[in-house]
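Lay summary. Proteins are chains of building blocks that fold into shapes, and those shapes determine what they do. In this project we predict the shape from the chain. Here is one chain we studied, written as its sequence of building blocks.
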Amino acid sequence: MINFDRLADKYDEEQKREDSSKIQSQAVKKTKKSSLHIVLLVFALVIVASIAYYFWPTVKGLRAATKVSALFHKDVSLTGIFYSEDDPIAIVDGKIVHEEDVIDDVKVLKIHKDEVEFERAGRRWSQNMHVVEKGVSSGLPMLLELGSHKCPPCRQMIPILDGLRAKYAAKFQIKYIDVWQDRAAASEYGVRKIPTQIFYDRNGKEVFRHVGFYSKKDILAAWIKLGVKL
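And here is the predicted shape, written in a compact code that computers can read:
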């Protein structure tokens, strides 16, 4: 007679052995798969490290060259300083600038009487400029501008005077007095309104004066009328 209970127990034991075998097989597969992933990861890291080691000197050199270029590339040009204690002005690349202004990533740090301090990418340097002083020098005729940095028409005159100074330095002088800073100058030169332009001949004698904004064209025409060959 068939004992079904024993058959059932035997079947259960065989099923358990099969399940155990499957679990072990799956565990082995997972272990192999994990090992393969680790090997591939290590291999990838080795390749990346090798590439970095090979190219790092070039990359480092390019970074250093770029940094040096940024530090020492001084392409701004200082062509004028109109100094006052409360609001000094400079002409940089043909533009009127104040302290803390930025031109082409170059920051204007400080405007002194005879120089301007700049900064780019942490690198600081200074450019010198002769101060526009009061007085008449012998040998050349002179245009004396009396104005103020607080006066809008006077500020409009600054780039005009700067351009004339740069182009006609061998023909005539241009000097500037800020009557806001030098109050006595207004009385000394008989100035009632600003800006005032006073033209002197080569001997220091006043030959013409104009009150108000004066264009470059009009200034040159005045010199020609006064006999100065441009």
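What the prediction tells us: The first strand starts at residue 78 and ends at 82.
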